[in-house]
Write a structure and sequence with these properties.
The complex is a heterodimer.
Chain A: E1 2-9, E2 19-26, E3 31-36, H1 42-50, E4 57-62, E5 67-70, H2 85-95, H3 102-110, H4 126-138, E6 144-148, H5 156-171, E7 176-180, H6 184-190, E8 193-198, E9 201-205, H7 207-215
Parallel strand pairs in A: 3-7, 3-8, 5-6, 6-7
Antiparallel strand pairs in A: 1-2, 1-4, 8-9
Chain B: H1 5-30, H2 35-53, H3 58-76, H4 84-104, H5 114-117, H6 125-144, H7 146-154, H8 156-161, H9 166-188, H10 193-205, H11 211-236, H12 240-272
Helix pairs in contact in B: 1-6, 1-9, 1-10, 1-11, 2-3, 2-4, 2-9, 2-10, 3-4, 3-9, 6-9, 10-11, 10-12, 11-12
The chains are: A alpha/beta, B mainly alpha.
C-alpha cells in the first residue's frame, strides 16, 4: 500500500534532516502505528505519505485508490468557524466529485454520530470531533486512512469507542490504517505493526516485540 | 428621492453590493483575513487613479489593479507565510503610494476624492452596467468554487489531499475580492469599504448558525445596513459610505445586546427550574 525507499526529509536546505534513509513497506490491510518521541518526525512522515510534503531524497509511493485523513483536533483552532457537521461532510463529498448525498448519512452512521449532523463542528467535544473526522475520512470508500494522533484531547471513554471504530474498519472492512500515536497503550493494543521512529531513523516491528524490547526499560511505559 | 435617475442607479448598485460584499467577506472573516479588504480597497483607489490617468473606465481600472494587488498578496505569502500582516502593509504602501503620487501630480482632471468617501451623485448608467456584469460574474464564480473555497478556509490540508488546487483557487478568490471592491467603491467609498465586507458577517456570526445560514443572514444584514445607510444619508445630507458604516456598527451592537439579553433570560429561567 505504501512503500518508501531511502526516504529523507528536511524542511529547508542547510537545516538538519528530520528523517533520514527511511525504508519501509506497509502492506494492504495492515494497521500500523507510528510512534516516537515528540519531534521525532512522526507527523512529517505521514505528511510525506499524504503528498503534502515532497521528499528531499528517496521515494515514497502510495498505491491507495483513495486516502482518508483524520487530522489532529487541535489543528482546528478556530472554534468559531460557522460550519455544521453535515455541511463539512457534504462539501467534502462535493470535493471528491461524489454525486450521491447519502454517503454523508452513511458515514455518520458508521461512527454513530447521526444525531450530531446539525451541530457546529467547533462545539463538539474532542471525542465527538474525532469521530466526525473519521466519518469524513470514510466518504468515498477509502482503502487507506491516515490518522494524526487521534486520541489527543479525547477522554478515556471516547478513546475506547473511537479505537473500536478504527479497529473495525481495519479488521472488518480491510482498510489499511496508518496512525501517528503518542498513546502507546492504543498503539500496542490495536496495531498489527508498530513503526518506531528515533533519531531520524525508523524500523518496523510487531507490538509484542516493541513492548519487550523498547518499553521494558522505559519507566514511563511500565503500565503498557 | 427615487425621482432622480442617479438615486435609482445608486439603489440598484447598492443592492448588488449588499449581496456581493458579505458573500465574499464571509470567506475572508472565517480565514481571519478581514484586513485584506482594507488593503485591497486602498489598492482600488490606486486603480481608479490609474484608470483616470490612462483615460479608461475607473471601475475597470480599480478591478484590474485590485486583482493584481490580490494576486501579489497571494504570491508574497509564499515568501512571508508567517507574516501575513507584513504582506498587507507592503501592498497597502504600494497602493497608497501610487494613488497619492497620481492624485498630487495635477494630471487628473476629475475628482478622485469622491471615491474615498463614496458618492451617489456620481453614479452613472454606465457604472450600473459595469457593476451588474462584475457582480453576476462574481456570483457565478462563487457558486462554482463554493465547496473548494469553503474547504480551503476550514481545512486547507484536507482540501489539498482531496485534490483541490489551493493556489489556483486562492488566485481566483483574490479576483473575486477585487471585483467586490471595485463594484462597491463608488457608493461606499474606499475608507469604509472593508466595513461592508466584514461587519454584516460579524453580525451574522453572532447567531451561531452553520455556514450557509450565516451567509444568508450576512446578506440580509448587509441589505439592511446599506439600504438604511443610503436612505438616512440622503435625508441627513451626509456621505453614504460613512453613514452605512455607522448603521452596520449599530446593527452589530443591537444583535450583540439581543444575544446578551437572551442568554440572561435563559440563565434566569434555568435558575427557576
Amino acid at each position: 500500500m505504501i512503500e518508501t525507499d531511502a526516504l529523507s526529509f528536511r524542511y529547508a536546505q542547510g537545516e538538519p534532516h528530520i528523517l533520514e534513509n527511511i525504508t519501509m513497506y506497509i502492506k494492504k490491510g495492515a494497521y500500523v502505528s507510528v510512534v516516537g518521541e515528540n519531534g521525532s518526525g512522526k507527523s512529517t512522515l505521514i505528511r510525506l505519505f499524504l503528498g503534502l510534503l515532497k521528499p528531499t531524497s528517496g521515494t515514497v509511493v502510495s498505491n491507495a485508490r483513495r486516502t482518508g485523513y483524520v487530522p489532529q483536533k487541535k489543528d482546528f483552532l478556530n472554534s468559531q468557524f460557522p460550519l455544521t457537521v453535515a455541511e463539512m461532510l457534504n462539501s467534502y463529498r462535493a470535493l471528491l466529485g461524489l454525486k450521491d448525498k447519502r454517503v454523508v448519512a452513511e458515514s455518520l452512521e458508521h461512527v454513530q454520530m447521526e444525531d450530531f449532523r446539525n451541530a457546529l463542528v467547533g462545539t463538539l467535544s474532542g471525542g465527538q470531533a474525532q469521530k466526525v473526522f473519521i466519518a469524513r475520512a470514510l466518504i468515498g470508500s477509502p482503502d487507506l486512512i491516515i490518522l494524526d494522533e487521534p486520541s489527543t484531547g479525547v477522554d478515556m471513554k471516547s478513546q475506547k469507542e473511537m479505537y473500536s471504530v478504527i479497529r473495525k474498519l481495519n479488521r472488518e472492512k480491510g482498510i489499511t490504517i496508518v496512525s501517528v500515536e503518542h498513546n502507546l497503550d492504543a498503539a500496542v493494543m490495536n496495531s498489527t505493526l508498530i513503526f518506531h521512529l528515533a533519531e531520524k531513523h525508523g524500523h518496523m516491528c510487531n507490538p509484542g516485540k516493541y513492548v519487550s524490547e523498547f518499553l521494558r526499560n522505559d519507566p514511563e511505559a511500565q503500565n503498557v | 428621492m427615487f425621482k432622480y435617475a442617479f438615486m435609482q442607479n445608486a439603489f440598484v448598485i447598492s443592492f448588488f453590493i449588499a449581496i456581493l460584499c458579505p458573500a465574499i467577506g464571509i470567506f475572508l472573516v472565517v480565514r481571519r483575513y478581514s484586513l485584506i479588504g482594507d488593503t485591497l480597497s486602498h489598492a482600488s483607489l490606486a486603480g481608479i487613479t490609474l484608470g483616470f490617468l490612462t483615460g479608461q473606465n475607473p471601475i475597470i481600472g480599480a478591478f484590474v489593479f485590485t486583482s493584481f494587488a490580490g494576486a501579489l498578496i497571494e504570491f508574497l505569502r509564499t515568501f512571508l507565510r508567517k507574516y501575513t500582516d507584513l504582506i498587507l502593509s507592503i501592498v497597502l504602501s504600494l497602493s497608497v503610494g501610487i494613488a497619492i503620487t497620481i492624485m498630487s501630480s495635477g494630471k487628473l482632471h476629475v475628482n478622485a476624492e469622491a471615491y474615498m468617501f463614496g458618492s451617489i451623485l456620481t453614479v452613472t448608467r454606465g457604472d450600473l452596467v459595469t457593476v451588474i456584469i462584475l457582480s453576476a460574474l462574481s456570483v457565478l464564480t462563487l457558486l462554482l468554487f463554493y465547496h473548494q473555497m469553503l474547504y480551503i478556509s476550514f481545512d486547507e490540508e484536507t482540501a489539498k489531499i482531496a485534490g483541490v488546487r489551493v493556489r489556483l483557487i486562492n488566485y481566483v478568490f483574490s479576483i473575486l475580492v477585487a471585483s467586490a471592491i471595485s463594484v462597491s467603491i463608488k457608493i461606499v467609498g474606499m475608507l469604509v469599504l472593508s466595513s461592508m465586507i466584514a461587519l454584516p458577517v460579524a453580525t451574522a456570526l453572532q447567531l451561531g448558525k452553520g455556514f450557509k445560514k450565516t451567509l444568508v443572514f450576512s446578506i440580509l444584514f448587509s441589505i439592511v445596513d446599506i439600504m438604511l445607510g443610503l436612505f438616512l444619508s440622503w435625508s441627513l445630507n451626509v456621505a453614504p459610505g460613512g453613514f452605512t458604516a455607522l448603521v452596520s456598527v449599530a446593527v452589530l451592537v443591537i444583535v450583540l445586546a439581543g444575544k446578551r439579553v437572551r442568554s440572561f433570560v435563559a440563565s434566569i429561567r434555568s435558575g427557576e427550574k
